Amino acid sequence: MAVSMLCSGHCSTHATTQVILPLVQGMLWTLLLSGWRYWNRGAQFQGATLGSKVRRWWWDVNNWKIPEQTQKAVEEKAEEVSRTFLKFYAAQMGGHD
């Protein structure tokens, strides 16, 4: 009761702002990071897309060595991911029988 007399109607708006704005900021930051991770997940250095050009430029500016990725390495990684997924799936299905 004493708090409501001191605030005269402005405290609820201020308190709401102090709660809502950090929540919105956190949500936007999370969305930004998630989007970046999704975009960067399939990032490649080869190609003529804008993303590839920007990525090569950024690595060149920072004097980083651009990794060599052969078709064989890509196929081996895809096979490894496939095997891992199938093991996980088999273990999940085996537990429900």
Highlighted features:
97 residues, 75% helix, mainly alpha
Counting helices, strands and paired strands, the structural category is mainly alpha
Q: SSE string, helix = H, strand = E?
A: HHHH
- Radius of gyration in whole Å, from Cα? 25 Å
Residue runs with pLDDT of under 50 for 5 or more positions: none
For the biggest sheet, the summary is: none
SSE layout:
Elements: H1 2-7, H2 11-41, H3 50-61, H4 71-94
Polypeptide structure, described:
It is a single chain. 75% of the residues lie in helices and 0% in strands. The protein starts with a helix and ends with a helix. The chain has helices spanning 2-7, 11-41, 50-61, 71-94. The model has no long low-confidence stretch (mean pLDDT 78). With 97 residues, it is an all-alpha fold.
Task: Produce a short descriptive summary.
By secondary structure, this protein is an all-alpha fold. 75% of the residues lie in helices and 0% in strands.
